[in-house]
Specification:
The structure is a single chain. 48% of the residues lie in helices and 18% in strands. It contains five helices and three strands; from the N terminus they run ααβαββαα. It has helices at residues 6-16, 24-38, 51-62, 90-98, 109-118; strands at 43-45, 66-74, 80-88. A three-stranded antiparallel β-sheet has the order 1-3-2, with helices on one face. A hairpin with a 5-residue loop joins β2 (66-74) and β3 (80-88). α1 (6-16) packs across α2 (24-38) and α1 (6-16) packs across α4. The longest helix is centred in the N-terminal third of the chain and has 15 residues, at 24-38. It is elongated, with a radius of gyration of 21 Å.
Length: 119
């Protein structure tokens, strides 16, 4: 699988969070935050995250960029060990990065008001 690049993740975050009002520098900071956990891997163990960091990951999950997985491994004496991890949803990230949004031309509300007054 391919490594998630900073450019791709920034485009995807810009096309989602940026469209909701997040400024570009904050989008870059969020991107670097996410990449600092994943590095060159496609997964992050959940137990390395603090509660506030996990909250950010849950928010990214809501937007379809990340998902959680759980595995159970039997260790000595047959006790199960649960491993929770976060993974990229690369298909969604690439789709969001490639999305093209057309800027709607600004409407002058005063033109509309004056039209109504003249009618």
């Amino acid at each position: 699988m391919s490594v998630m690049t900073r450019e791709t993740l920034i485009k995807a975050l810009e096309n989602t969070y940026g469209k909701k009002g997040m400024i570009h520098s904050d989008v870059e900071e969020l991107c670097d935050f996410v990449l600092s956990f994943f590095g060159y891997e496609d997964y992050v163990l959940d137990n390395v995250l603090s509660a506030p960091e996990r909250d950010v990951f849950y928010n990214l999950e809501e937007y379809g960029f990340l998902e959680t997985h759980r595995e159970e491994v039997n260790i000595v004496r047959g006790k199960p060990w649960r491993i929770n991890q976060w993974t990229y949803k690369k298909g969604n990230i690439y789709k969001a990065a490639e999305a093209v949004y057309e800027e709607e031309p600004e409407q002058n509300i005063y033109d509309e008001i004056f039209k109504e007054m003249n009618s």
